[in-house]
Write a structure and sequence with these properties.
mainly alpha, 2 domains, elongated, 4 strands, two-stranded antiparallel sheet, 9% strand, Rossmann fold, two-stranded parallel sheet
Length: 277
């Protein structure tokens, strides 16, 4: 985990040799594929440093990897995304259909990638705000405990130690929390949660034991401190500049339109996927 977080913190500032060396630690062989993705990653990093309006004129190159199952195509892309902290989704081309037919539309690929980017940013920003949120949660926990006549240590380190060791006094406290409380580290639907956050918060009073109250208060304080508009803006930027989409089984939709026979036409899917590819 520490290696992953440290690597992600570098963003795209990896030389091709460093990328290949990092991939070599996890994937055997495939030297040509590793070199190709390493160069593509470096070119994308350079593109972001070109002054506007030239930067928008330089389009990143996509890569077509060909090989049998199990040689490491998906793993190379997944590891590359982990190195730079990029949102990553893997999809199967055969699961998509032309708009108006049964099946998923191609635009859902970008929606899924954006949802993942929002979740990543919320988790990162939430962890960064965790220390201050913890202090505020301890203060609110003391206030709630005082209201019930429960004595808690005034020193924050001592109180945190008691929480970790489950050495708190018996008793329950009443706290006010936003309804509903979502887990900052495992959001189920980031876009929906962002839309919910734009509405006025509704508080509800709940009664919990001291340990449960602290965790709920901490989550509440983290979510309250997040700039939801900023989260979505950052997620959108990551999706546009760093997002990685791995489209599997793309060869299965590349048929000859003159020799389709009785098979379903994939022409619409080809046209829809083309802007992404």
């Amino acid at each position: 985990m520490a290696e992953k977080e440290g690597a992600a913190g570098r963003g795209g500032d990896w030389t091709p040799a460093e990328v290949v060396a990092a991939l070599d630690r996890h994937i055997v062989g495939q030297a040509a594929a590793k070199r190709a993705v390493a160069i593509a990653l470096r070119n994308r990093w350079r593109r972001r440093r070109v002054p506007e309006p030239l930067g928008t004129e330089i389009q990143p190159n996509n890569i077509l990897m060909v090989g049998p199952t199990g040689v490491g195509k998906t793993e190379i892309a997944r590891r590359l995304a982990g190195l730079v902290g990029a949102p990553f989704v893997k999809v199967e081309a055969t699961k998509y259909t032309e708009v108006g037919y049964v099946g998923r539309d191609v635009e859902s690929i970008v929606r899924d990638l954006t949802d993942l980017a929002v979740a990543m940013v919320r988790e990162e920003w939430g962890r960064a705000a965790s220390a201050k949120a913890e202090e505020r949660a301890l203060g609110r926990l003391r206030e709630a405990a005082d209201a019930r006549g429960i004595d808690l240590p005034m020193d924050s380190d001592t109180l945190m130690g008691a929480l970790r060791e489950s050495e708190l006094p018996e008793g329950r406290v009443e706290v006010s929390l936003a309804s509903p409380i979502s887990d900052i580290f495992t959001p189920a639907d980031p876009i929906r949660e962002f839309a919910d956050s734009l509405r006025p918060a509704r508080l509800r009073k709940v009664e919990l034991d001291l340990g449960g109250a602290f965790e709920a208060l901490k989550r509440h304080e983290i979510e309250s401190s997040l700039d939801t508009a900023g989260v979505v803006a950052e997620a959108r930027a990551r999706t546009e500049e760093k997002g990685i989409v791995f489209i599997d089984e793309i060869d299965k939709i590349c048929g000859d339109p003159l020799h389709d026979g009785g098979e379903i036409s994939r022409g619409g899917v080809q046209r829809d996927i083309l802007p992404i590819v």
